[in-house]
């Protein structure tokens, strides 16, 4: 059964998430529940104290009790009421101020760890991205959900158990009427759950859309282009339309459930009237004392409002959030990219045998039946037109994606069978879509090797090797982000920092996937020459459109429409007619100066 279709019943889901919540903040869960138990029991204590007080007053009126007989239950009642207020305050503060943030942190951590173990190819899949968006919403929902579940058992559970025993001892029918009054309300909540689960499923893609449109309007990375190209109105319209759609869906769900709520209120009103009647007739018939009548009568309002609070508010919210909670669990249940342990031995090189890969949502494979061997100490350049499959091949060779057909071995490790962390441990890469971390210059470089202690001399060397001359006013501590009180770099400077990051990481297999597009061709050739020196004795892959750089590699692989159409040295490929020779002629004038 696919993950999407797998069913998650309410109680099974609840049993799955309670241990997760408990693990994220064990002591706080214990404290919260203990407070809730005491708080719940205190309500019943106040009912019993009220009964004693009224009985004592009734007896005093007939001369059967004195002042002290009335004062003691009065003091007990005052003490219980005061204690209730204190416990309530402490419980609220602890629940909202401590337990909630702590467990939300724990669950977020769990989600992040899970994401690390999910196949990166999933991040290209729209359904997965929707599920991820839903699961993020689930972090907040799950914490509230569990808190309510705890409170239901430890506070309301204790309250209703003790008050139930008390009412039953007075008159069983009273308890039965109260319970029956809430059955229609509970059924209404089941319908509500279904409505909101469906709403959540429909909302996630819309939410992702409007979050994206909002980014195009407000984010710095889009700001210049959307203003200059006049895209603001366009994106604003899309944003408003998606928002409107989402709001309309929410409104429809709320309207549907609000009608049910109305029916619930009528039922509870009828239940309250009937209970009062039973209580009155029992007192008149002398079945219960005046004190018990007064205690129950004053409590009836509280019992109903607490029951309504449970059904309308808590069960209602739980039902509304169950969809989000299920999405969180669904993500946790996703298959992980795991495998056997091992260490790459790069003397065995990198071998691809008949590999193919198709992106989710695409029919044509991006890489088709590709085979080649990169021997130890060899540098290979991969060239080809846009969309030829170069970057996809690199992702397959580095184990980021697993081939749908064929086999890739990196230093003797089969990427489909080995734990990803083991495959990655000896690889360093600079990719086309490298990151511009909003961190200091030093962190931007050293982040590629968090396994070892930060080595400032090595950061310096890497920046030098990448020819990253950023200016005398920029040091390792300079924050590279205007959003965080720092400065920005030019496109070419960022690329050099990214290359330095790739060089900083210890490796046996280096990949440069065209990280030099913002650097002029002459400079690029210089960087690649330096890279070639660093790659000596290692396995290396260069992806480039500029054949002046491909020339530096031992062999060149030419790709077209996902397939390898030619392999050879630069000179071999030039000596025969073909795509490489055509591309070289078209680009030759760039390199005349660089020779
Ligand atoms: N995330 C994705 N989802 C679906 N298709 C994709 C995705 N990424 C790439 N493709 C498709 O896979 C094919 C190969 O893309 P790839 O990025 O590997 O080409 P490339 O040779 O590196 O291109 P370029 O020189 O433009 O960087 C293209 O047809 C592209 O449209």
Automatic annotation (TrEMBL):
Molecular function terms from GO: ABC-type transporter activity; ATP binding; ATP hydrolysis activity; ATPase-coupled lipid transmembrane transporter activity
Its membrane topology: Multi-pass membrane protein
Pfam families the record matches: ABC_tran
Residue intervals of the ABC transmembrane type-1 domain: 35-313
Main subcellular location: membrane
Subcellular location(s) per record: Cell membrane
Keywords assigned by UniProt, alphabetized: ATP-binding, Membrane, Nucleotide-binding, Transmembrane, Transmembrane helix
Domain of life: Bacteria
Transmembrane segments: 142-167, 173-191, 258-280, 292-311
GO CC entries: plasma membrane
Residue ranges annotated for the ABC transporter domain, each copy included: 350-586
Protein name, as recorded: ATP-binding cassette, subfamily B
